[in-house]
Specification:
Helices cover 25% and strands 16% of the residues.
Length: 266
């Protein structure tokens, strides 16, 4: 279970709960995506008033803050980032294959980016009576998976594949900080599979490159078809020879493409 991110920025009674932030939250850029759906609203959706109070606990500082993915001596901030009020919980995770290693990793996170991601889901999902999730930096994972220069069967997954994911859901069913949309959401796996399929299609027929990307595509496909709304299967959860990479510190560089992405409701 993650530690609470910050002390409340203001007293709940002082917040104008009818004030909805509009037009201040940047939209996710393809291949990043978001979704508003019932899974994040069970057994009842978080209320917009409660989520606005929870959002007010996240500062808008642009200075990076160090966060560890595992607790330990001297580690003040431990992921996932969690804030909540009433019916609403906001959870922020580092996602990607190296987000689940047994070795501690230090990541520098800009609080305002967390605030913006939460605000986007509040304004697009919670305001319509549903919870939802959003990713940021998914291109980090895709770029490595479609890199023709890697040895896909042997190279260890690098921490540079990591990206951000955030979701807002109801606290009515109790806390479950282990749910990480960037790892377990079928939509994320499907987006990654589409990128690998496109990379395969761009290679010359009958070439070694086509054979290599066909192998990658089949691997990702096998993992994605097993995904569901549990934390049992990830989009990389298929047999693959791999080496364990060294632990270390990382600053996630959030790559994005230049296309806009629209909401997908399922």
């Amino acid at each position: 279970m993650g530690l609470t991110l910050f002390q409340p920025a203001l007293n709940a009674s002082a917040l104008n709960a009818s004030a909805v932030p509009v037009g201040v939250f940047p939209a996710p850029v393809s291949p990043d995506l978001y979704s508003c759906r019932g899974y994040y609203s069970y057994p009842s959706p978080p209320t917009a008033a409660d989520c606005r109070i929870a959002l007010s606990q996240i500062p808008q500082s642009t200075e990076p803050v160090p966060w560890y993915d595992l607790p330990g001596p001297g580690r003040e901030h431990v992921l996932p980032i969690s804030v909540q009020h009433g019916t609403c919980q906001i959870l922020f995770h580092i996602s990607g294959p190296e987000s689940q290693t047994a070795s501690p990793t230090l990541t520098y996170i800009v609080p305002k980016q967390v605030w913006e991601m939460a605000g986007w889901i509040l304004s697009r999902c919670v305001s319509t009576g549903r919870g939802g999730f959003v990713t940021k930096g998914l291109l980090n994972s895709i770029s490595w998976l479609v890199d023709p220069n890697i040895n896909f069967q042997e190279d260890p997954y690098p921490t540079s594949m990591n990206f951000y994911s955030l979701h807002i859901w109801s606290t009515s069913d109790g806390e479950d900080d282990s749910w990480n949309p960037g790892n377990y959401e079928f939509m994320v796996g499907e987006k990654i599979l589409q990128a690998v399929e496109a990379a395969e299609a761009a290679t010359a027929p009958d070439s070694p490159e086509r054979e290599d990307f066909a192998w990658r595509q089949e691997y990702i496909r096998e993992a994605v078809v097993n995904m569901d709304d549990t934390d049992d299967h990830t989009w990389w959860d298929a047999p693959r020879p791999r080496l364990e990479g060294p632990a270390g510190n990382t600053s996630i560089v959030l790559k994005t493409a230049n296309q806009s992405v629209s909401a997908t409701d399922v």
